[in-house]
Amino acid sequence: MECQRCARLRRYCTDVARARKRAYRDDVYWGKPVPGFGDPHARLLVLGLAPAAHGGNRTGRVFTGDGSGDFLMRAMHAAGFANIPTSRDVDDGLELRDAYIAAAVRCAPPDNKPTPAEIAACHPHLVDEAAALPRLRAVVCLGRIGFDAAWRLLASRGIVVKSRPPFEHGGLYRTAALTVIGSYHPSRQNTNTGRLTPGMLEAVFRLARRELIR
């Protein structure tokens, strides 16, 4: 049975799926919690915020069906982590290589802003997903919420730092368990304003690739 821990998020996802966006009025929305996807033998975890209301919440696959997904996949493809540079729908043939994508929150939140309680309620799902990746060595965190979730994930593995490093794009932090790499989130707010460019995100994934071959 699907998770019902967060009434606000479940209500919002259901309402969006019922009303639908005009551009997708003929689509059948997923409208349920969206699990991660990718290579079960991945050494790299890509950790985002949450499914988009008309992206992952519509298609049933995180970072799929919207501009953010295509922006992300171009960078992952350039670094060899994806077989194609787009992420349109679950039947598009996309395969991740040595990478797995998940989100701190599995349900689309209103205004892309989950509450701290909702993030905490979803954290056990992330812990379980990461535990199912036995070769995991590094995490690329897309945005501050993903960055914070990565450090909570480390804490669940017994790695507690006295002073958590600040979030910054391209920041790399090695711990005894995992390497954490920060990146701006590929949201339209960042990509349309030039705060995050294709080259900047590609550089993050090249950094992750170098870290995996150390």
Which helices and strands occur, and which strands form pairs?
Elements: H1 7-19, E1 37-38, E2 44-48, H2 56-59, H3 67-78, E3 99-103, H4 116-131, E4 138-142, H5 144-156, E5 172-174, E6 179-183, H6 188-191, H7 198-212
Helix pairs in contact: 3-7, 4-5
Give an overview of the whole structure.
By secondary structure, the protein is of the alpha/beta class. It has one domain (7-212): Uracil-DNA Glycosylase, subunit E (3-Layer(aba) Sandwich). Helix content is 36%, strand content 12%. It is built from 7 helices and 6 strands; from the N terminus they run αββααβαβαββαα. It has helices at 7-19, 56-59, 67-78, 116-131, 144-156, 188-191, 198-212; strands at 37-38, 44-48, 99-103, 138-142, 172-174, 179-183. Strands 1-3-2-4-6-5 form a 6-stranded mixed β-sheet, with helices on both faces. The radius of gyration is 16 Å and the shape is globular. 46% of the residues are buried. The model has no long low-confidence stretch (mean pLDDT 96).
Q: Main attributes?
A:
single chain, 214 residues, alpha/beta, 7 helices, globular
